[in-house]
DNA sequence: ATGATAGGTGGCGAGA
DNA sequence: TCTCGCCACCTAT
């Protein structure tokens, strides 16, 4: 099955077979026994004295591990080591956090030999000598061996293997051929990507990351149950590298497998954080005065969590500190005592450093899997770590914000990052092992709202009023006990709202499913890295079919590479016209790079927009729409890296003639079919499973929406799978399809097309009757759909009245049906009132005018009424 | 570093 | 003062 992470039928069944390995079973058993005994010693912090916990094993003696997050150090002595974070099951049936250290990762580099080898398995070397595979291999091996020694790589294996290459590098031949696969340990540095030799023209995979290699090779697609066949050792408390409850070491990556038994997906521990800060004017930095934490210890990730507010699941704590050398206001001690009567929910500290220590310790003790907060990645985490640095919080404390013990703080980027741009790499490094769920970023992805601040979101989504305290008001809060308690409550309320938002939007189950579908790391999906999702999907798929994938261009020095890449890969420059043109081209490109991201002219032409026949229409207008046009084109014409022949001069390629289905079309087919299947399952299932299916369907819908991203990634310059010719081919087909549809409707069906944009056309039916219009529409649709196999048009809407003003600007009264009843909705596209950069007044006035125009009243009445209202507005403005 | 291109609109400054 | 080109911003698909 394609996406093994998603289990459609009969997902929840078997519990893991509890404890003990078969005595005779595997040699792993004794090791695991010792693991277990060590773990009893090792799990120091979380278990109460006298309580001992041991891990449950599968019946074959392997250790089940629910994989959640992973991390690799990119620099330093630990690069090449992979850290997996997840959950293991304890004897009591509870779950504990676990870190698995995977050692001995091997680099994997492909050597592309010179000359053609596609002729009958013989290596045609420089067209002169024809050698056998074995002979050629030995010549090549000898040279590669020398080169490896030169690079200081002393320990390696070499194997000739058959692989295909179908991407955009002109220096690597397309199609299947024998290449030499080299593997060597990560402790040796990466080979230079441009290394060449007498017998080989290129290297691929030189800088592949250990983690990516691991996940692709082990076919791990997002959060899922894994089993560790052998666990080499288990560190006890002082020797642990992580803050997790348990820690194991895996010395052979191949001992990590996807679990074949389906087991219940464990709940996770979610901690919501909200900081209240004051601005230190002298240094222009935020200082923390209070931190609120809300913890839910059993959040479901396979279905929506509905009862998260149930007593016992939720705990809260707010830590406040004194402002400057002040003392806490009068009466605070009393409040303090009341709040802590039953449970510690309020904590007072005298310094910011003490507050931070307390908070980090709390997160550690909670054994948090997921940190949540509104704009947590853009604000709270950044402030936390900067303050930890400024207050000289010890590394064994601040590093508890993540799961890996650290001694040095990674470079944090400046605090003044753009609102909502996500966390910096340094912050993500610190939090490795705990997922970051930023409800601000997520709602921006999942919802369409005017504003994504907490206050409006709380209102529109949760129907709750949020009390806001402006940042300059915060110092005043310390003047009285009452106002200070209000500050505390505000912090807790905010933390709570953010968590509620997360549950309300089912962010965890949704993003988990998305990660499973695309094979992405959950943390990346939460960060909204859409391009990366597609990248992973393609990586998994192409690897499975034995294709060598395009190299990962490292971020560092990318700007330099940009121009270089342009020169190497650019088909524009490939024109043998003259060298001058080429140099100018690359110089222009360099300029574009230097001028930054703001200036980016389109690289190729996109969708067709028809000139609108402007005016007010009062007969029924039919809006016809091709369902996900670009993905369908890929399927319809079998467009793929593997099928389209790219021309050398950079012109738009021809449609493929190959009937062999390409990988992209197959992928889309699988996704579409999968969605259909889920839809069907939804009809026939009930109860809890239905909720799960619903999430699945939502996720699939999201992916379907993001199928567009597959096209996007083909046209996205920084994408690993950048293929301008393919993107161009797709859009050019799109234009042709739209045009031919227009021609069909106008010439053959003799109907008037008044507008069209990329994948849609509007037809003036000239009718007053709904039913007749509908009938006509279905006839048109039938005719259009007959022409295509996968492309499907649909009647998107019928407009009773419409005002068509410009390209991409129109208002219409849409007719809809619900329970057999007809009702009308106003749809407004592109006009001022749907834009955020127009004032409320102009929106209101516009709204009124349009409602008048579309009311269907006589022309004169409308004019009079609009005029009157405008006069009224004018008067009001003069007054104001 | 964080899918695409097409298109409308107001603001701004240069130049007539 | 007016026009024009450029830019930032936001939207449609």
UniProtKB/TrEMBL annotation:
EC number(s) recorded for this UniProt protein: 2.7.7.7
Keywords tagged on the record: DNA replication, DNA-binding, DNA-directed DNA polymerase, Nucleotidyltransferase, Transferase
One Pfam match: DNA_pol_B_exo1
Statement: the UniProt record of this protein carries the keyword DNA-binding: yes
Domain of life: Eukaryota
Keyword hit for DNA-binding: yes
GO process annotations (BP): lagging strand elongation; leading strand elongation; mitotic DNA replication initiation
Transmembrane segments: none
SUPFAM superfamilies (alphabetical): DNA/RNA polymerases (SSF56672), Ribonuclease H-like (SSF53098)
Domain DNA-directed DNA polymerase family B exonuclease: 205-454
GO MF annotations, alphabetized: chromatin binding; DNA replication origin binding; DNA-directed DNA polymerase activity; nucleotide binding; single-stranded DNA binding
DNA-directed DNA polymerase family B multifunctional domain span: 521-879
GO cellular component labels: alpha DNA polymerase:primase complex
InterPro entries: DNA-dir_DNA_pol_B, DNA-dir_DNA_pol_B_CS, DNA-dir_DNA_pol_B_exonuc, DNA-dir_DNA_pol_B_multi_dom, DNA/RNA_pol_sf, DNA_pol_B_thumb, DNA_pol_palm_dom_sf, RNaseH-like_sf
Leading EC class: transferase
Catalysis performed (reactions): DNA(n) + a 2'-deoxyribonucleoside 5'-triphosphate = DNA(n+1) + diphosphate
UniProt similarity note: Belongs to the DNA polymerase type-B family.
UniProt name for this protein: DNA polymerase
């Amino acid at each position: 099955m394609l996406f093994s992470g998603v289990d459609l039928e009969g997902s929840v069944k078997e519990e893991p077979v509890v404890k003990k390995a078969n005595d005779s079973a595997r040699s792993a058993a004794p090791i695991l026994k010792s693991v277990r005994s060590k773990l009893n010693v090792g799990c120091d912090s979380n278990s109460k004295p006298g309580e001992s916990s041991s891990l449950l094993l599968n019946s074959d003696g392997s250790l089940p591990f629910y994989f959640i997050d992973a991390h690799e150090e990119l620099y330093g002595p630990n690069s090449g080591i992979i850290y997996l974070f997840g959950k293991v099951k304890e004897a009591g049936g509870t779950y504990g956090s676990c870190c698995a250290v995977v050692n001995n990762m091997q680099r994997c580099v492909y050597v592309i030999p010179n000359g053609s080898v596609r002729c009958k398995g013989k290596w045609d070397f420089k067209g002169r000598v024809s050698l056998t595979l074995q002979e050629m291999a030995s010549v090549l091996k000898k040279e590669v061996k020398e080169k490896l020694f030169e690079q200081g790589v002393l320990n390696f294996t070499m194997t000739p293997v058959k692989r295909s290459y179908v991407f955009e590098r002109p220096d690597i031949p397309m199609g299947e051929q024998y290449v030499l696969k080299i593997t060597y340990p990560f402790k040796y540095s990466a080979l230079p990507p441009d290394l060449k030799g007498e017998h080989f023209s290129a290297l691929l995979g030189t800088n592949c990351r250990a983690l990516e290699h691991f996940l692709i090779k082990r076919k791990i697609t997002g959060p899922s149950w894994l089993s560790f066949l052998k666990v080499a050792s288990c560190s006890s408390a002082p020797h642990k590298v992580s803050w997790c409850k348990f820690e194991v070491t895996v010395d052979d990556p191949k001992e990590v497998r996807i679990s074949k038994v389906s087991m219940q997906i464990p709940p996770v521990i979610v901690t919501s954080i909200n900081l209240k800060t004051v601005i230190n004017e002298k240094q222009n930095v935020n200082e923390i005065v209070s931190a609120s934490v809300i913890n839910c210890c059993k959040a479901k990730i396979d279905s929506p969590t509905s009862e998260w507010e149930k007593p016992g699941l939720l705990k809260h704590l707010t830590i406040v500190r004194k402002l400057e050398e002040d003392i806490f206001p009068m009466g605070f001690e009393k409040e303090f005592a009341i709040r802590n009567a039953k449970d510690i929910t309020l904590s007072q500290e005298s310094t910011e450093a003490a507050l931070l220590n307390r908070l980090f310790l709390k997160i550690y003790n909670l054994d948090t899997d997921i940190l949540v907060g509104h704009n947590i990645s853009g604000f709270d985490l950044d402030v936390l770590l900067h303050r930890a640095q400024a207050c000289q919080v010890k590394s064994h404390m601040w590093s508890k914000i993540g799961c890996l013990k650290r001694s040095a703080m990674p470079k944090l980027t400046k605090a003044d990052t753009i609102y909502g741009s996500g966390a910096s790499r340094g912050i993500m490094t610190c939090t490795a092992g705990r997922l970051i769920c930023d409800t601000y970023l997520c709602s921006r992805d999942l919802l369409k709202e005017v504003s994504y601040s907490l206050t409006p979101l709380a209102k529109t989504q949760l129907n709750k009023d949020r009390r806001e305290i402006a940042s300059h008001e915060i110092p005043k809060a310390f003047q009285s006990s009452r106002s200070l308690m209000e500050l505390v409550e505000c912090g807790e309320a905010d933390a709570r709202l953010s968590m509620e938002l997360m549950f309300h939007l089912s962010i965890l189950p949704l993003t988990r499913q998305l990660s499973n579908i695309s094979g992405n790391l959950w943390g990346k999906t939460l960060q909204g890295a859409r391009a990366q999702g597609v990248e992973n999907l393609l990586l998994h798929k192409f690897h499975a079919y034995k294709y060598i994938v395009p190299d990962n261009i490292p971020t560092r020095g990318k700007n330099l590479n940009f121009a270089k890449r342009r020169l190497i890969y650019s088909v524009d420059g490939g024109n043998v016209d003259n060298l001058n043109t080429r140099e100018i081209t690359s110089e222009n490109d360099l300029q574009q790079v230097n001028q930054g991201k703001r200036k980016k002219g389109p690289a190729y032409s996109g969708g067709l927009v028809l000139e609108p026949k402007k005016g007010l229409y009062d007969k029924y207008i039919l809006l016809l729409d091709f369902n996900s046009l670009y993905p369908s084109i890929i399927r319809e014409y079998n467009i793929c890296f593997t099928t389209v022949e790219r021309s050398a001069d950079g012109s738009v390629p021809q449609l493929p003639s190959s009937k062999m289905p390409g990988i992209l079309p197959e992928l889309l087919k699988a996704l579409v079919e999968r969605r259909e299947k889920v839809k069907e399952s939804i009809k026939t299932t009930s109860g809890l499973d239905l909720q799960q299916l619903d999430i699945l369907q939502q996720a699939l819908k999201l992916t379907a929406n993001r199928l567009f991203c597959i096209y996007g990634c083909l046209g996205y310059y920084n994408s690993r799978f950048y293929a301008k010719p393919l993107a161009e081919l797709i859009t050019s087909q799109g234009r042709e399809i739209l045009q031919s549809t227009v021609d069909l409707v106008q010439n053959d069906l003799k109907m008037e097309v008044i507008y069209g944009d990329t994948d849609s056309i509007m037809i003036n039916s000239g009718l007053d009757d709904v039913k007749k219009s509908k009938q006509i529409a279905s006839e048109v649709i039938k005719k259009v759909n007959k022409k295509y196999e996968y492309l499907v048009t649909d009647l998107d809407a019928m407009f009773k009245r419409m005002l068509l003003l410009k390209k991409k600007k129109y208002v219409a009264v849409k007719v809809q049906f619900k329970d057999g009843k007809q009702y009308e909705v106003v749809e407004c596209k592109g006009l001022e009132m749907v834009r955020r950069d127009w004032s409320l007044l102009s929106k209101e006035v516009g709204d009124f005018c349009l409602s008048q125009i579309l009311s269907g009243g006589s022309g004169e009445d409308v004019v009079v009424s609009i005029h009157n209202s405008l006069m009224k507005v004018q008067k009001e403005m003069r007054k104001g």
